[in-house]
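Q: Hi! New to this. If I give you a protein sequence and the SMILES for magnesium ion, can you show me the bound structure?
A: Yes, paste them in.
Q: Okay, here:
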Amino acid sequence: MELISAKNLYKEYKLGEVSQRALDDLNFKIEPASFLSFVGPSGSGKTTLLNLIGCLDVPSGGSLTVAGADVLKLDRKERAAFRGRHMGFIFQDFNLIPVLTVYENIEYPLILVQNVPSEERRRRVLSLLESVGMMAHKGKYPDQISGGQKQRVAIARALVTAPELVLADEPTANLDSKTAYMIIDLMKAMKEKSGTAFIFSTHDQKIVGAADIIYSLEDGKIVGRKEMKKHGSI
Amino acid sequence: MAAFNLLKIALRNLLRYRRRTLFTSSLIIIGVVFVLVFVAVTGSIKGLLIGQITDSMLGHIQIHKKGYVASIDNLPLTVMMGPKAVETVENVIKTIPGIEAYSPRIKFGGLFSNYRETTNIRLNGVIPEKELDTVPLLPGRIIAGKWDLAKGNVLIPELLAKGMDVNAGDSIVIIATNKDGSVNGKQFTVSGILESVTGPGGRDGYIHIDDAAEILRMEEVEISEIALRLRDIEMMPGVHDALTEALSEERNKAGKPMFEVHTWEKLSPFYNIARMIDIMTFFIKIMLIAMVLISIMNVMIMAVYERMREIGTISAIGTMPGRILSMFVLEGLSIGVLGALAGNILGCAIIYILNLSHITFNFGRQTGLVLAPRVQGEDLLIITVIVLAVSAVASLQPAFKASRMEPIEALRHV
Ligand SMILES: Nc1ncnc2c1ncn2[C@@H]1O[C@H](COP(=O)(O)OP(=O)(O)O)[C@@H](O)[C@H]1O
Ligand SMILES: [Mg+2]
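A: Thanks. Here is the predicted structure of the protein with magnesium ion bound:
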């Protein structure tokens, strides 16, 4: 079964009296363990779409199923619980918690979102620290590490709960291009390792080439789908 | 584990904004210290003044024949307790625990003559030992002569001694009219002069009860009032109620209650001053509440505003609203704990220093009363509870706002 399925999905923003369609009549399916990107110019609806998939916002209409759940039927609290169980998030601005160390930032979801016993927590956090290459910095605070390093930590934090899906809205927009490639490569490697689907958005045409599947967005509509040769879907 | 981590995050955030935390907790510390010192100092003054009034004049509780207090200013000789009534009261007193001593008094007004001039005097005829047990500070008011109430001796108030130019050792005459209208006089030696105290009884003289009965030509001794001393003034309301209850069963022939029981509070206008001190304390506590409320609410509103993106992040990754609420309430509460703790310690230290420095003050003509402020465990507890409860309440509104934030809106915040 597919991980995500959207049918006639749309989203309207009300601006006073008029409402504007930020997403219009989207239809797509995303398989588990995909490495997929939405590309498009600024204002094309990438953030809006990722927010819907991530259950951070609710569709105006159509249907959207994520990890078996009908997103339109979840209330605020249920959406929070659902995100905590099934998803990880990577943000453009890294958004680590400034008062927690690298180690504690990665551990956070295991304590305050899920309730994982301490031995298991330790095992998972150390293993991810190793995988994202941040073991040497585990005791540092976010303001003591670089942007690329912060994003590595964010990737580890997103994966620590072993979610089915990680969403990343322009995860490289605040990084130089060299670091950006490294982060995308790391995401891809982590996807291979964990089997977690990664969906990221970008307006950077160079970055997008790393994705297995690329959806092009324009004015809230999907205008193209490209599948890279190596991987399709599983 | 989750609770511990919430607390860890809260405390680290307080450390992160160290100056602001310090400033807010300083406000609370100042408030707590102020209330604590105020309560201890006024409590000490109040206790001393109440002690002066109860232990040198009134006693804690007084029992009269019904109707006496209504005309107490006239010292009526017609509303007295005869021997049987006194026996009844004595028997009741024995059944009620907490009464340490009691003293029957004959109170009357008379004329005082130094052979040259005559003036009015109010007198208490007392049994010296019983009076001493009931109002132990009475001898302390003697400023000339000594405490000696043998028959034929009189202790006179200072004002009278000055006005009539009488000294200890002088002979004087006291003349009084009894309830039947017959006039009688008796010569006395002034054995001591009493310092005056504000309030009723503060300008009374004292003689032996037998002398009083003699002047008033009493066939059987009739008593105006019985003053009681309790083991502890805190027991006053309970003993008052028990006495009232037990004595209410005693009825006269008309079926009306025979006795009335009053605490010193009902007998002295000083009680109103004591009440005013209590009311001031109450308002100062309200001020403390307002101070804590405003400072913590202010700092927490700022904290929520500044950490909007952080709230958006933790909310997005699935932290439940209740957890976010607790995180911020814990933060505000921690400031309260810090303030209450430091404030209590500092307040106790200041009170300790006040005790060491032996500050004295005067009350009316009583001089050199030593201020001995005491910290009551109860006050520490009340102040701490107030600060903690108000801190929690003050952080609740900002914390609730944080927990209700939509993650995408919070994340968009710059
Ligand atoms: N909260 C909002 N209120 C109103 N309009 C919005 C809001 N968020 C996005 N939009 C509009 O929806 C469209 C898509 O925006 P967005 O999803 O942010 O695009 P992208 O992420 O691709 O730049 C834009 O026209 C934008 O102005
Ligand atoms: Mg965007």
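A: The longest helix of chain A spans residues 177-194. Let me know if you'd like me to explain how to read the tokens.
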